[in-house]
Specification:
- This protein is about 55% helix and about 15% strand.
- By secondary structure, the chain is α+β, with helices and mostly antiparallel strands.
- The protein folds into 3 domains: about 1-170, Beta-Lactamase; about 195-315, Orthogonal Bundle (Helix Hairpins), CATH 1.10.287; about 320-480, Heat Shock Protein 90 (2-Layer Sandwich).
- It has a 5-stranded mixed beta sheet. A 4-stranded antiparallel beta sheet has the order 1-4-3-2.
- A hairpin with a 2-residue loop joins strand 2 (about 115) and strand 3 (about 120-125).
- Helix 1 runs antiparallel to helix 3 (about 145-180) and helix 7 (about 325-345) runs parallel beside helix 8 (about 365-380).
- Bound molecules: adenosine-5'-diphosphate.
- The site of adenosine-5'-diphosphate has 21 residues, from helix 8 and helix 10.
Length: about 500
Amino acid sequence: MRLTIKLTLAITAAIVVVMVGLAGVAYHLLDDVMIADMVQDDWLIGRAMAAAEEQNWEDATKAQQLLAEINQHAPNLEVRLVNLRAKPNDSTFPTLALGDLATFHDDETSRHLAVQQGGYLYLYVPLHVDPTGTTALELRESLADRDVYRHTTLLTLAGTAVLMTLLSMLAAFGVGTRLIGRPIPALVNFAAAIGAGETDRRIVLRQRDEIGVLANAMNTMAEQIANAKTQLVAEAMARVSMVEQLRHADRLKTVGTLASGLAHEIGTPLNVIGGRAKWLLNDFPDDPRVQESARIIDEQASRINRLIRQVLDFARRHPSEKGPTEVRQLLTQAEHLLTSFATKGSATLKIIAPDAPLFAWVNRDQITQVLTNLIMNAVQAMPHGGRIQIGARPLRVTPPLDLGGSIGDYIEIAVEDEGVGIDPLQLQRIFEPFFTTKDVGLGTGLGLSIAYSILRENDGWFVVTSVLGQGSRFAFFVPATPTPRSSHL
Ligand code: ADP
């Protein structure tokens, strides 16, 4: 608002200066014109009278009569005969001591002298009645009317100037408020809001002047800030997720190393226990109590052995042989392998994949292991049976940042069940080594950790979605490869 007031005051000051100047000039011009007009009128009267006096000069009475008549009919005007040479006490002595009257000549008929003095206009018109040229008519007109008119004009001019100044002030203030006073605080508030992080705010100004252009530029700026912010947040999230994944991979590696060391340590005494159990079985065939105990020891030792093998498998990190692998055949093979296991759990397996061959660049045995593990988990997640869909399809997707992060061709393989689903809190932990919700003897918690490591080795990754009580979908992506001439089928 301060800017509007300053602008209004500046415009008003300029208008006042112009108006006062104009009024002054007009006033003086008017004054000059009025005086010139009076002189002109008086001179015409004077000349006419001079002509009449000159004609009747010889008849002094007539000449005096003429003067008396004109003085009677023109109340503002007084005409006298004057002589320049007259003594101060003479009746023809001029009111003004004007030596210039002496310069009147016969041939200069339009010659006159006009002087303003003491509220009167004096006009001297020479009379061509004596050779010395010292006789003249003195016309004296009051300036009172002129003064009244001048005063009225001055008041009118001043009133007009004040009115115009007030109107200009009002107009300048109104326009200034609309174009500057209101939009500038709105722009300031808008800039403050953007600064405070409200980047989705926009300003709407209808004016098309520089302030309107500024508002549009600020809107564009807000949009760019919002985009940059979204991009920054996305990048930060991607970084956090990458760090999480790296940490997870690192944890897997540490756990794997620890577990394999432990497995080696346990392996030797376990072999001794198993050997001794077998020895007892052979040496005491007739003692049922020894037989029973030795059998249990042997069974449990074998179970621990199996577990150790799994742990060693998980920890083993030799580079896997990859090649073009036909995915549909891989699914069919897994289906054959697991149909009887699924049937026992009242589950059915169904493959959904395109007829055309799909080739992935992976280690066939490792991916079969992942698939087998997912199908077994799906069967176990449906205690009352249900349908398991095994699907495959080609997709163009962006992998996680630690796998390059740039879009590419991949094959998605998904195992979808109608099982118990996974609690969101547990969903974050299912890939952790030894995380299991299954009863002792049923789960080791290593299946998904191994599957995770295998996928990383094959440049793939998991995407798991699950709804508690409705089922889960375990999808993984592996790099697609163009159809080869001969493949590892
Ligand atoms: P395990 O099967 O030996 O428990 P996994 O690593 O294969 O080990 O699985 C870890 C856990 O993930 C399981 O104990 C289970 O809680 C959960 N899980 C895996 N697959 C499914 C599934 N299809 N439905 C529900 N939960 C599952």
